[in-house]
Amino acid sequence: MRIAHVVSYFQPEFGYEEFYSAREQAALGHEVHVITSDRIFPFKNVEKMLSDIGSEYNGRLRGVGISEVEGVLVHRLKTRYEILYDLIRYDDVVSELGSISPDVVHAHIPWAYGSRESARAKARLGYSLIVDEHGYSTTYDQKRTLRNWLLDKEYRLLRAPRARYTLGKADGVVAVSTETETFLREFYRQKNVDMVPLGVDHKRFKPDPTARERIRSEMGIKDGLLLITAGRLDRAKRIGPLIKAVKKMGSTDVKLLVVGRGDDAYLDELRAMADDNVIFQGFKTSAELSGLYNAADIGLWGKASITIREAMGCGLPIVLLDSPDVGSLLRWDNGLAVKDDPERIAGAIMGMDEDTRRRLGANGRKVVEAELSVNVQAKRLLEVYSRASLK
To answer: For the whole model, what pTM was predicted?
Structure first.
């Protein structure tokens, strides 16, 4: 099968679904292309992020042309403009699709320029079109603030009409989480939605007893309880209750690692409420993060995140704050859901003895291998492509 992924920004050095899917599909013997802009996503502190991972680049620009990355042909096209943070237009998407002549186009994010162009050219070029949504894209039911109101209006007036056009042309629509699936069905009234969970790089995120022993020794932790939370740190991730739960325990033998970067003002608030038992680690590469998961005893999260599945890959039991999308992450007896209350969180953590932690963690690793790896995700997407081609 000849597959073209169309995505506004492509940054294989940081991973992400569009890279892993393309890489695994190429490894399975398919001809895989990525059509994208000549730059990576406008992350905050992107220069520092690139420096932290030892990248050869020190900025967002990647140049125009075709290169090969782990068996995938990457077509980088010249950017015309970027507005409103991540609305980007780049040249020649349709002509590039014409030269590739794909059997299927997988367009990432329905409102994106490349997705709309892929939808526009579908009938003329004769490919099947799959569109995916990576996240929950509007703030219409979140806290009522002026910023959220403005973001909601911008989404409804500018992005949603583009998305509806693209979705209307799609032969298949993919959601990456139950929350995203609900959003597509309720906000867009979309019916043909397949839920294909984000995959975990199971070869990188795996149990490593040697790393566990080394890192705990370096941190001076012998028999104490080491907790971890990781990912982009913003208010939606609900890190505050996790920090308060550690304070409730009142023990110097319990440490919490908070890994990642995010909103600076929110991070300042978290640091102000934390005591010496909370250690802020900043950004970590995936290799470093895998080691920290192995060193930890329990993973804590306030909101669904791909980092939860990565921790499961390392055999880490998880505790999640209860929410509508938690059930899909805990249905394998791999962790616990608790109310958003520091005392209940603390009770759940202290109630997990070593045997329980070992059992829950082993269940998590097992399900990553069987259902949640990037290889399994790529195969599921291929099944979606095949069904779409039969329509």
So the answer is: 0.84
